[in-house]
Structures are given as structure tokens and as C-alpha cells.
């Protein structure tokens, strides 16, 4: 799966030189993040205008439409994570009201799908990591802060400054004992 500054999203197969599917043509907002869900049957694309779009991967048309597309953040959606069986999605980004990390239910109508919005990360959240064993979200922000959220309790557990500049990467070890952060500096 590839995404570009011009907003195009294309899927390829290792053994074929031509794209299998063009999910999104050029001319849209820049792609900020893309993932497949754990089952591999859906892919999600976040963009620079605050939207998250989700497609079924097994498409027979050359230019399929997303089965879900909604604006998660008023400025940009920088990252997201599929939670559980991909019916629950967490997003990070920048919103005018500082609700920069959100939980969404994809099975309800778009007018009611926001489950919880966390007010955190002045100037926006840049990255997001889900820890399924502990049911935690870890987010990094533009000012170098890390926030850890309990998604069952829907509350922030910890906030600390890890870097002097924007957090650009988060990685979680498979046993969920440690996480690592990387920053713009």
C-alpha cells in the first residue's frame, strides 16, 4: 500500500509491476498514515485535512469508494490505530478544541461515532501506538510530550516530556514491557 503527498493511494502485489487498485486518485490531501487492520481485509488512510477513510481490501473495481470516511480532527489526522477487530479506531491529530486523541466506533452512524475525545497535546498529537495487552494508547505530541491513556477507563494515566521537539515515532516491544520514542531533534 502506498500513499503520497498528492493524496493518491495505491495497492500493489509483490509479483506484479502494475497496481492492483487505486483507492484514491491524486488531488486529495496529503496522506499522513496508512495501515492494514490485523485481519488484512481493510486498510485505513489518514490525511492532512483531518480525515480518516477505510476501504475493504478485496475490491474488484479499479477505483473503489471507501466504506467509511469522516473528519476526525479539524486540522490534520496524523496517525491512527485499529483497535480490537477494527470496529474501534483511535486517531491522533490536531483539532481547534485540543481534542487531539480520539476513540471512534465504526459500527454506528457518523453523527454518533465519536466515543471519547481526550484533551491533550497542545499544538497536536503526531503519533499513536496501541498496546492491546494492557488496553493502553500511547501518543506523542508536537512539543515532545508523551501521554498514556487507559481506553477502558477513558482517562489519561501519565503525561511526561520525553523530548524537546516533536515526537515523530513510537515503537512498542511485543511483550509490551517497553516503548521507544523518536523525535525531530
From TrEMBL:
WD repeats lie at residues 160-185. Transmembrane segments: none annotated. PROSITE patterns: WD_REPEATS_2, WD_REPEATS_REGION. It comes from the Eukaryota. GO terms for cellular component: RAVE complex. The keyword Transport does not apply. Keywords: WD repeat. SUPFAM superfamilies: WD40 repeat-like (SSF50978). One of its GO terms (biological process) is vacuolar acidification. This is DMXL2 protein. It comes from Setophaga kirtlandii.
Amino acid at each position: 500500500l502506498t500513499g503520497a503527498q498528492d493524496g493518491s493511494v495505491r495497492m500493489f502485489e509483490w509479483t506484479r509491476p502494475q497496481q492492483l487498485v487505486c483507492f484514491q486518485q491524486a488531488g486529495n490531501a496529503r496522506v499522513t498514515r496508512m495501515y492494514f487492520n490485523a485481519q488484512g481485509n481493510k486498510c485505513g488512510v489518514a490525511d492532512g485535512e483531518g480525515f480518516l477513510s477505510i476501504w475493504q481490501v478485496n475490491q474488484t473495481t479499479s477505483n473503489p469508494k471507501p466504506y467509511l470516511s469522516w473528519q476526525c480532527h479539524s486540522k490534520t489526522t496524523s496517525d491512527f490505530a485499529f483497535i480490537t477487530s477494527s470496529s474501534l479506531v483511535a486517531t491522533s491529530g490536531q483539532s481547534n478544541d485540543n481534542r487531539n486523541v480520539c476513540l471512534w466506533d465504526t459500527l454506528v452512524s457518523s453523527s454518533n461515532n465519536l466515543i471519547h475525545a481526550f484533551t491533550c497535546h497542545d499544538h497536536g498529537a503526531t503519533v499513536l501506538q496501541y498496546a492491546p495487552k494492557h488496553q493502553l494508547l500511547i501518543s506523542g505530541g508536537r512539543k515532545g510530550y508523551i501521554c498514556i491513556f487507559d481506553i477502558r477507563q477513558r482517562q489519561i494515566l501519565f503525561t511526561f516530556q520525553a523530548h524537546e521537539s516533536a515526537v515523530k515515532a513510537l515503537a512498542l516491544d511485543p511483550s509490551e514491557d517497553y516503548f521507544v520514542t523518536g523525535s525531530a531533534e
